[in-house]
Amino acid sequence: MVNIFLENDNINVKVPNTKSLRYVATKTGASMEFGCRVGDCLTCVARVKSGMEFLNKKNDKEIKALEILAMNVEGLRLMCQCNVEADEGEIVISYGF
Amino acid sequence: MLSKTTKVSTSVDFIGAFDPQIRTFDIIMKTANGSSYNSYLIRGSEGVAVMDTVKKEFSEDFFHSLELLCKYDEIKYIVLHHLEPDHSGALVELMQKAPRAQLIISGRAVMMLKGLLKKEIAFEVANTGKTISLGDKTIEFLSTPFLHWPDTMSSYLHEDKVLFSGDVFGSHYYDERLFDDKVGDFSYAFKYYYDHIMRPFKLYVRQALKLYSKFNIDIIAPLHGPILRSNPQYYIDKYAQWSSEAKFRKHEFGQKMICVFYMSSYDNTQEMAKKITEGADSVEGVVASMYDLASLDERNMIDLLEESDAIIVGSPTINGDAVKPAWDLLSCMAFLESNGKIGAAFGSYGWTGEAPEMLHDRMRWLKFRLPVPPLKIKLIPTQEELESCVLFGQEVAEIAMGKMVEMEI
Q1: Average predicted confidence (pLDDT) for chain B
Q2: Chain A within 8 Å of B340 (Cβ-Cβ)?
Q3: Which whole number is the average pLDDT over B39-68?
Q4: Is the Cβ pair B367, A10 closer than 8 Å?
Q5: ipTM greater than 0.95, yes or no?
Q6: ∠ at Cα B248 (B247, B251), nearest 5°?
Q7: Residue B218 to residue B163: CA distance in whole angstroms
Q8: From CA B189, how far away is CA B175, in angstroms rounded?
Q9: Which candidate in A3, A17, A40 is best for mutational testing of the B interface (most B CBs within 10 A)?
Q10: Which 8-state DSSP code applies to residue B382?
Q11: Euclidean distance between CA atoms B145 and B150, whole angstroms
Q12: Cβ contact B190:B225 at 8 Å
């Protein structure tokens, strides 16, 4: 299980491999905002403060969407495009900006 | 009704349209005084910028006004502060008439533009700090998302000190005298507009006010209702006051507030509510209160819902559903920020007991944080079950006080 700390809500959750961050948000009741849920609207942009290597890689759509923000996108991900891709690890996520 | 152009400042003219007859806007808003779809033209030494268009039905008025002031080949920029149809209704026709014009939209508007127009249109994205020039006039953009569409932005005309605020500071109030010092008393319309359109996005209002504060603003030019020129700071202060995050209990007493709303057929859900309230209230730093939905007018609960750090809703199950007053209460959340607010649901039941799960699901879609599963008890609670209600209330209260939630999914 990968341990994810959802910083804004003070939630520490153990998540199995392949689960999406949308699923995690739904199951934990975390206050992450989702808009279109398909990587277009940028509503769910969040900062992965550590453990990026335990998530899937950014797809082209996500890279293109984040470029629109025209800011330092280091560590930024669209939560609607993220899945856990590891059996073990620690991830810290901050959202809502 | 053909619009008239009106001088707003040295280089800005009003070219919007009036809609005195509209009585319901966006399905949900009453508009007793009608409304206006404000659009502006900025003229600089090297061209013209058109700031937003109007609702499609009013295109003729808009183009009539525009043609009084400029030729289409003079238009260098078309700025859409957000893409809502009441401001983008004349966009396609305008772009056909002014093919040299560059369309400026926010980054968040890109995909919306495709969805709205169902065709590819060339555009340029503006983020906070981007400027465009009309020769002797400079327009600077500010990203002010979610006010009230995700793609909303604002802009500032430096030379004339005019803030184009989008729907922020708007009012549904038709009056052709146009300026706040000339029109009738629109204070009700201004507050009503804030309550219905901006209040659910208070966080973003505060962020926008921070961005606006770096500018010296002489005139606020919103997209609906009067142009605010007599004392712009008065309106900014009103928004700051209404959007303040200071909660009375938190601010005055350093307490978290938990409200337990319930309805009960045979006192069983009420008994649960009492014990949940008792449990929540026993946590230091928390004040918990109980409200019987049977005797409430939910519209009077909006301030209370907003003030609460956690809302716990209880309903018996009747014909496989939660009772209507519980749904009515949650429907009030459409006017409020609920993202991150803690929620929980409970109820006694006789046959099937769906109500607590249904309320829990509804709160999830309203973006509540739901750290504890719904609590349901069959018919009359035992002593042991009542004790579980106390623990349920305590758990919600401790999480409201910042206790870390450990979960496995």
Answers
A1: 93
A2: yes
A3: 97
A4: no
A5: no
A6: 75
A7: 8
A8: 12
A9: A40
A10: P
A11: 5
A12: yes
Strand partners, B357: none
Q: Is any Cβ of chain B less than 8 angstroms from the Cβ of A25?
A: no
Residue B399 DSSP SS3? helix
* pTM summary value: 0.80
Q: Do A35 and B150 touch (CB under 8 A)?
A: yes
Of A28, A43, A70, the CB nearest to B407: A28
Structural domain boundaries in chain B: 6-242, 249-399
Backbone φ and ψ for B138, nearest 5 degrees, come out as -125, 130
Nearest-angstrom CA–CA distance, A36 and B149? 13
* Contact at CB, A1 and B408, closer than 8 angstroms: yes
Which contiguous run of DSSP H or E holds residue B128?
A: none
The amino acid at B404: M
**CATH T-level topology, domain B249-399:** Rossmann fold (3.40.50)
Structure tokens at B54: 């109007």
- The matching CATH number, chosen from 3.50.50.60, 3.40.50.1970, 3.20.20.70, 3.60.15.10, for B6-242 is 3.60.15.10
Who among A12, A27, A42 is closest to B406 (CB)? A12
Query: What's the CATH number where A51 sits?
Result: 3.10.20.30
Tens-place pLDDT, residues B159-212? 999 999 999 999 999 999 999 999 999 999 999 999 999 998 888 898 899 889
Question: Count of residues for chain B?
Answer: 409
The structural domain count of chain A equals 1
Rounded Cα–Cα distance for residues B258 and B144 (Å): 32
The whole domain housing A55 covers 2-95
Chain B residue nearest residue A70, CA to CA: B127
